Amino acid sequence: MIGSLTGVLAEKSPPRLLLDVGGVGYDIEAPMSTFYDLPPLGERVRLLIHQVVREDALLLYGFGSPAERTLFRHLLKVSGVGPRIALAILSGVSIDVFAQLVHAQDVAALTKIPGVGRKTAERLLVEMRDRLQEPLTPIADSGAPAGTPESEALHALVALGYKPVEATRLIKSVAGDSRSTEDLIRSALQNAGRN
User: Fold this and answer.
1) Half-sphere exposure of residue 97, counting CA atoms within 13 Å on the CB side?
2) Where in the chain is the domain with CATH 1.10.150.20?
3) What are the DSSP E strand ranges found in the chain?
4) Domain 66-131 carries which CATH code?
5) How many other β-carbons are positioned within 10 Å of the β-carbon of residue 169?
6) Higher pLDDT, 164 or 82
7) Cα-based distances in Å from 164 to 51, 80, 145
8) pLDDT of residue 85
9) pLDDT tens for residues 144-161?
10) How confident is the model at residue 61 (pLDDT cuts 50, 70, 90)?
């Protein structure tokens, strides 16, 4: 699976963009929240990717932040919400505003987003309530800068099923001078097994 792509921004025409990675052009769809932060054409950019494999297509969705991609993935788990609606939601409201609407159970505000009808809005409110209890950006809460061995190890532990708070605690307990991502993960898992 493709997790991220770094390349030169060749085209941008919302919601689609073309990223040239070593001479290969990747056709990617992205929410407007990502488009607002894109550099000018010809500049390098790194996007986090969510890949969808279908019988008739391989689709790539790009995001400027881990929180956007995490919310997109949560939205796809809601019955009746596909990639188009998930992109519309991310384009229509910020992550913080979406969380506030869910916590306030505001059906009317959600139905103002193009493609979101009343039934879909009601399902979103029910199914997203629990998913929004955990932070969408565990790295930001951990204090570990993105791209460091600590942040990569944290992502790995979360992917293994640890809660972000627990993963952060484990990484902080074993973090030391110039340790590799693999060493941090190994030590964190050993510590978790002792507790």
Assistant:
1) 10
2) 66-131
3) 4-13, 16-21, 24-29, 44-53, 58-63
4) 1.10.150.20
5) 17
6) 82
7) 23, 28, 15
8) 92
9) 455 577 777 777 777 676
10) very high
71 close to 94: Cβ distance less than 8 angstroms: no
Residue 83: its pLDDT value, please?
Answer: 93
Residues of the chain with CATH 2.40.50.140: 4-63
**CATH code for the part of the protein at 4-63:** 2.40.50.140
Q: In the structure encoding, which two tokens stand for residue 7, read together?
A: 């390349």
Residue carrying structure tokens 């921004």: 9
What is the Cα–Cα distance from 59 to 49, expressed in whole angstroms? 10
Q: How far apart are CA 143 and CA 100, in angstroms?
A: 24
Please give the CATH superfamily to which domain 138-194 belongs: Ubiquitin-associated (UBA) domain (1.10.8.10)
